[in-house]
Specification:
It is a single chain. The chain is built from nine helices and seven strands, in the order E-H-E-H-H-E-H-E-E-E-H-E-H-H-H-H. Helix 1 links the parallel strand 1 and strand 2. Bound molecules: flavin mononucleotide. The site of flavin mononucleotide has 17 residues, from helix 1.
Length: 262
């Protein structure tokens, strides 16, 4: 495995929390001798699939002219696909899901039976992807916030006829920004080693995956820090002259403020 394509679906692109993990992981992948292409949905114009199956009726030609062709070409030149996405409403971000839906152009209309289960055959122009990896972070504290996404991405691997090769999941991801560097260094190092391991051994070990997901701060303390941050931001906005941003609810300065854990 020598060629990797990373698609980051965060609306925050290269400035987001997901990217902190992606950067470390990619460093390890490159150190192990693989080449990496990075795409950001934020910088791509990808329309949602229109659902008419025009591509199935017209020899795999999509009716839309946008940046999807660039993504499909990148997929043709990679053997590992990394889906990088923050958790949005318990799943992948909308832009990344839109992009994945458009992969229908590379799927044959015919249903085949694989291990007793219906799936589509891939078209002869299909991608060369052999393995799929997930990198994600979420705002809540618990690991179970990745449950729905994990089930979904494993199913996507099946649909794309490739092996699910592991996931780097970072709960309370925003803590990577506000905690001192020494507290997150083991997470970053483990993400880098997981990248190396994937290229050398073809899979990431559970030990490294768990090190990336380790608790960085207690739940109560985290809630307190995040809520204090948002109270500060909202008070600043309330007193700011720039009234472009409006809230349906005014920030309260009473004990209702989120300074206090419930
Ligand atoms: C629209 C939206 C939906 C979100 N939904 C969830 C969610 O369901 N569960 C969760 O734990 N975090 C959720 N988050 C928080 C993000 O996962 C978190 O802020 C993450 O660090 C953002 O990563 P990024 O900087 O790479 O975009 C949501 C954020 C946004 C903007």
């Amino acid at each position: 495995m020598k060629r990797m394509l990373v698609i980051n679906g965060s609306p925050n692109g290269a400035k987001g929390n997901t990217e902190i993990l992606v950067n470390a992981f990619v460093e390890g992948v490159e150190a192990a001798g693989a080449s990496v292409t990075r795409l950001y949905t934020k910088n791509l114009r990808i329309n949602p699939c229109c659902g008419t199956l025009h591509c199935w009726k017209n020899q795999g030609k999509c009716c839309m002219k946008d940046d999807m062709q660039q993504v499909l070409e990148a997929m043709n030149n990679a053997d590992v696909l990394v889906l990088a996405s923050p958790v949005h409403v318990d799943g992948l971000t909308g832009p990344l899901k839109n992009l994945l839906d458009r992969f229908v152009v590379r799927v044959s209309p015919y249903i085949v039976n694989r291990n007793g289960h219906n799936t589509h055959a891939l078209s002869n122009k299909s991608s060369s992807i052999k393995k799929l990896v997930l990198i994600s972070n979420c705002g809540f504290h618990e690991m179970d916030n990745f449950d729905a996404m994990l089930v979904h991405v494993k199913a996507i691997a099946k649909l794309f006829h490739c092996e699910f090769a592991g996931a780097l999941l970072r709960p309370h991801g925003p803590a990577m920004r506000f905690l001192p560097k020494n507290l997150i260094s083991e997470v970053i190092l483990s993400a880098k080693m997981a990248g190396q391991e994937l290229i050398k051994a073809g899979r990431m070990s559970e030990k490294l995956e768990q090190a990336v997901s380790q608790e960085l701060i207690g739940k109560k303390k985290y809630e307190l820090m995040v809520n204090a941050h948002w109270t500060k931001v909202r008070i600043k906005s309330f007193f700011s002259k720039d009234k472009d941003i409006s809230y349906s609810e005014k920030p309260s300065l009473s004990t209702e403020t989120a300074y206090l854990p419930s």
